[in-house]
């Protein structure tokens, strides 16, 4: 089923060319189903690229999805045309009285700053607190995951000795968790960050479970035990060339940066990068949309956050013999 996006959004042409099923509002209005309402809080400077990456993944599910793009009111992006933001984005003030089946919170290039020093941290706290009552399930990505773990559970990030940069192998620790349904025992995913979250801190919290980690990259996937909060410390949404673009940018700036690990054949940046994480990226988002959102959200959006409405999103399958 398609993701419902405006006809003039730049991502639409790219996704259509890739044969991703997208739909206009006019066509969606003639289908007798309630689409899932999912908001994307896009904090990345490369907003159009990030929109396309996330919509590609959200458009590969059997459920119609209606997207709302959100930007911070307390910070103006310097890398995206104001006309694009005005045409396609809403502010938190516009939606604070609305409810959503799902919310995706992206990463942001502010990870080396203390949370409280980020210009839009007060607004971020508002949104994170609001999400607990107005959103059925939230997917937090990279810095968004760190911010969510800090605000909701008091788990802080820490600076790394060197940038975690490349594509790393990960191991699934909770194969019965619905968020990794269909995953292989091991899988690959990209990371691009200067900070990390200790696995032990997440394991020690009674309301959280660690679902997947990497020997090299550490924590990758965790969730609340009811499945309503999902935390992904990497960037499964990245395109084949995204890490290459970041590497070339840093080299041009004269920064000391290593070649992304496990990315170029023979670590040779003149060669085409491998794209070995695509299938698990699609599966991760499909599982979240299906099990984390669709299977639990109430039909009436107004009932989200009301005790007894809907059902808890699927976390770990209680019927599995391995549980």
UniProtKB/TrEMBL annotation:
<feature type="site" description="Important for substrate specificity">
    <location>
        <position position="192"/>
    </location>
</feature>
<feature type="binding site">
    <location>
        <position position="249"/>
    </location>
    <ligand>
        <name>substrate</name>
    </ligand>
</feature>
<comment type="pathway">
    <text>Amino-acid biosynthesis; L-methionine biosynthesis via de novo pathway; O-acetyl-L-homoserine from L-homoserine: step 1/1.</text>
</comment>
<dbReference type="GO" id="GO:0008899">
    <property type="term" value="F:homoserine O-succinyltransferase activity"/>
</dbReference>
<keyword id="KW-0028">Amino-acid biosynthesis</keyword>
<feature type="binding site">
    <location>
        <position position="192"/>
    </location>
    <ligand>
        <name>substrate</name>
    </ligand>
</feature>
<dbReference type="InterPro" id="IPR033752">
    <property type="entry name" value="MetA_family"/>
</dbReference>
<feature type="site" description="Important for acyl-CoA specificity">
    <location>
        <position position="111"/>
    </location>
</feature>
<dbReference type="GO" id="GO:0019281">
    <property type="term" value="P:L-methionine biosynthetic process from homoserine via O-succinyl-L-homoserine and cystathionine"/>
</dbReference>
<dbReference type="InterPro" id="IPR029062">
    <property type="entry name" value="Class_I_gatase-like"/>
</dbReference>
<comment type="function">
    <text>Transfers an acetyl group from acetyl-CoA to L-homoserine, forming acetyl-L-homoserine.</text>
</comment>
<protein>
    <recommendedName>
        <fullName>Homoserine O-acetyltransferase</fullName>
        <ecNumber>2.3.1.31</ecNumber>
    </recommendedName>
</protein>
<comment type="similarity">
    <text>Belongs to the MetA family.</text>
</comment>
<dbReference type="GO" id="GO:0005737">
    <property type="term" value="C:cytoplasm"/>
</dbReference>
<keyword id="KW-0012">Acyltransferase</keyword>
<dbReference type="GO" id="GO:0004414">
    <property type="term" value="F:homoserine O-acetyltransferase activity"/>
</dbReference>
<keyword id="KW-0486">Methionine biosynthesis</keyword>
<feature type="binding site">
    <location>
        <position position="163"/>
    </location>
    <ligand>
        <name>substrate</name>
    </ligand>
</feature>
<feature type="active site" description="Proton acceptor">
    <location>
        <position position="235"/>
    </location>
</feature>
<dbReference type="Pfam" id="PF04204">
    <property type="entry name" value="HTS"/>
</dbReference>
<keyword id="KW-0808">Transferase</keyword>
<feature type="active site">
    <location>
        <position position="237"/>
    </location>
</feature>
<dbReference type="InterPro" id="IPR005697">
    <property type="entry name" value="HST_MetA"/>
</dbReference>
<keyword id="KW-0963">Cytoplasm</keyword>
<feature type="active site" description="Acyl-thioester intermediate">
    <location>
        <position position="142"/>
    </location>
</feature>
């Amino acid at each position: 089923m398609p993701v419902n996006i405006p006809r003039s959004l730049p991502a639409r042409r790219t996704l259509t060319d890739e044969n991703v099923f997208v739909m206009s509002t006019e066509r969606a209005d003639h289908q007798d189903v309630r689409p899932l309402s999912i908001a994307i809080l896009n904090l990345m400077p490369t907003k159009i690229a990030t929109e396309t990456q996330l919509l590609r993944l959200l458009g590969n599910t059997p459920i119609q999805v209606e997207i709302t793009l959100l930007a911070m009111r307390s910070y103006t992006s310097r890398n995206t045309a104001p006309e694009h933001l005005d045409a396609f984005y809403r502010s938190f003030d516009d939606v604070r009285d609305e409810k959503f089946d799902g919310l995706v919170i992206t990463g942001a290039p502010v990870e080396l700053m203390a949370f409280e020093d980020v210009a839009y941290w007060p607004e971020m706290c508002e949104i994170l607190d609001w999400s607990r009552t107005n959103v059925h399930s939230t997917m937090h990505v990279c810095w968004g995951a760190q911010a969510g773990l800090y605000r909701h559970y008091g788990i802080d990030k820490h600076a790394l000795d060197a940038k975690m940069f490349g594509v790393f192998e990960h191991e699934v620790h909770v194969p019965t968790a619905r968020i990794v349904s269909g995953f292989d025992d091991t899988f690959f995913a990209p990371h691009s960050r200067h900070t990390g979250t200790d696995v032990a801190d997440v394991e020690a919290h009674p309301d959280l479970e660690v679902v997947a980690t990497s020997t090299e990259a550490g924590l990758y996937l965790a969730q609340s035990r009811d499945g309503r909060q999902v935390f992904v410390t990497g960037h499964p949404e990245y395109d084949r060339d995204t890490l290459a673009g970041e590497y070339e940018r840093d080299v041009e700036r004269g920064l000391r940066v290593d070649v992304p690990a496990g990315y170029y054949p023979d670590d040779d940046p003149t060669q085409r990068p491998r794209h070995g994480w695509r299938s698990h990226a699609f599966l991760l988002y499909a599982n979240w949309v299906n099990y984390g959102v669709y299977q639990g959200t109430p039909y009436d959006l107004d009932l989200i956050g009301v005790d007894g409405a809907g059902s808890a999103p699927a976390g770990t399958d209680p019927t599995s013999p391995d549980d």
